[in-house]
Amino acid sequence: MSQTSGAARPGVVYLVGAGPGDPGLMTVRATQLIATADAILYDRLIPPTALDGARDDALLEFAGKGPRGDSKLQPEIEQRMVELAREGKSVVRLKGGDPLVFGRGAEEAATLAAAGIEFELVPGVTAGVAAAAYAGVPVTHREHAAAVAFVTGQENPEKSETSIDWAALAAFPGTLVFYMGVGNLPRIAERLTAHGRRADEPVAVIQQGTTASQRTVVAPLAEIAARVSDAGIKPPALTVIGDVVVERQRIEWFERRPLLGRSVVVTRARAQAGTLGARLRELGAEVIEAPAIRTIPRDDDAVRKMAERVSFGGAYDLVCFTSANGVDCFFEALKRAGSDARGLAGTQIAAVGKATATALGEHGLNADFVPERATAEGLLELLASQDLAEKQVLCAVASNARPVLTDGLAELGAAVERVAIYDTIAEPLPASTTEAIAGADFVTFASGSSVRSLIEALGKAELLHGRQLISIGPITSEALREAGLEPSAEAERYDVDGLIDAVVAAAG
Question: Which one is catalytic: 22, 43, 328, 441?
Answer without folding.
Answer: 43
